[in-house]
Amino acid sequence: MEKTSGLISGKEIYQAELKNVKEHKDYRGSFSEIFQDHWNTCIEPVQWSLVKSKERVFRGMHLHKRHDEYFCLLTGHCLLALKDIRPGSPTEGVYSLYELFEEDLAALSFPKGLLHGWYFHTPSIHVQAVSEAYIDYGKDDNHGVIWNAPDLGIPWPMDEVILSERAQDFPTESELKASLGDWQPFE
User: Fold this and answer.
1) Mind listing the domains of the chain with CATH numbers?
2) Pfam families this protein is in (predicted)?
3) CA dist., res. 187 & res. 70, Å (int)
4) 90-117, pLDDT tens digit by residue?
């Protein structure tokens, strides 16, 4: 069965974009451009990170009010979810659930204000970029929601995950929204 990366549940979210990545193969291996400025994505990266995850690891659901992000799975198999909680967004309340495979390279860029998280079915490596360096955003813009909160509404197909200690204490979506106060991302 052919493995194809793409949206498997939910709807497309305003300003989030999945790009298919062309892999140029020859007898030596392959070459792939995983980011191009001319793609006109929402992100202007200032930090790139290489992230290794073990099987069943869940990273997220995070929310950043100040920076855009980019995700490209290099090896492995993962699910990546977005949920638009930006007040006034044309897709407010919509979620997207993507499945990504190393055999079908794809890169997802998405704007600030989207809840986002990824689950790794197998040991995996991904490249991640942000438009604000980690040293600058720290705790004041590193919010989260528990991955399986009933009000999140994302149909994750797994029951058990490995979480960071911090993510184990994340609130529900409604609790996070209440803590954000009068947040206007489109002003």
Assistant:
1) 6-180 (2.60.120.10)
2) dTDP_sugar_isom
3) 23
4) 999 999 999 999 999 999 999 999 999 9
